[in-house]
Amino acid sequence: MNRKQLAVGITGASGAIYGVRLVQELLKGGHIVHLMITKAGWQVFRDELDWDTEDREKVLQEKFQQTYPGTLHYWTLRDFSCPVASGSHRGDGMIVIPCSMGTLSGIAHGASGNLLERCADVMIKEGRKLVLVPRETPLNAIHLENMLKLSKLGVKILPAMPGYYQKPETMDDLINFVVGKALDSLDISHALFRRWGE
């Protein structure tokens, strides 16, 4: 198996389950994950998933570490000792899933206001794989301009839009389609959905 080392950001956009499922799939595959969660991301865990986020270490242990064989490194947004924050670190890319419009704007403008934005900035400056999964509707002109700017820089914009040709029957089917497309963008094999023609 080709064990990859990937940075994953989870922000406060709706759709926290996408980020959770992606991290679980990466760890299930034995990969190394450098995880960053914004303050709003933790709030969405509570509001959408009904998780008790008072003890964050317990959440990370129960939802990710104790079940899966991969390696999880969790970084707070002020801990710039994270190796992904340096261009000398040779990882396999980064994904922000879901990506809020605030985080997307910070990345588009090179703000590097926190660790997540800094790591994304490193991906862009080093010409490495960066995938953003925005979950917002409707989109205004500012959102679209920021996404176009990033796309022109080589960033993959992968909106959280599930497909229906695989005839989803459950909420999990819809979630797995988006997460599967994200894994495709990271060049990681999976069997989360039935592909067209299969």
Quick recap:
This protein is an alpha/beta fold.
What is the mean predicted local confidence, pLDDT? 96
Query: Looking at this structure, what is the CATH superfamily?
Result: Flavin prenyltransferase-like
Give the helix tally. Answer: 7
What is the C-alpha radius of gyration, as a whole number of Å?
A: 16 Å
CATH architecture: 3-Layer(aba) Sandwich
Q: Characterize the largest beta sheet: strand count, sense, and whether it forms a barrel.
A: 6 strands, parallel
Q: Approximately how much beta-strand content do the residues carry?
A: 15-25%
Poorly predicted tracts of residues: none
Cross-sheet strand order for the largest sheet: 3-2-1-4-5-6
3D shape = globular
Order of helices and strands: EHEHHEEHHEHEH
CATH class descriptor name: Alpha Beta
Helix content: 40-55%
**Tally of DSSP β-strands:** 6
Structural class: alpha/beta
Distance between the termini: 24 Å
The CATH topology comes to: Rossmann fold
What's the number of domains? 1
Notes on the structure:
There is one protein chain. This protein has 198 residues and is α/β, with parallel strands linked by helices. It has one domain (5-185): 3-Layer(aba) Sandwich (Rossmann fold), CATH 3.40.50. It has helices spanning 16-28, 39-49, 56-65, 101-108, 115-125, 141-152, 171-185, and strands at residues 5-10, 32-37, 71-75, 94-99, 130-134, 156-157. The protein has a 6-stranded parallel beta sheet, sandwiched between helices. Strand 1, helix 1 (16-28) and strand 2 form a beta-alpha-beta unit. The two termini are 24 Å apart. The relative contact order is 0.17. The model has no long low-confidence stretch (mean pLDDT 96).
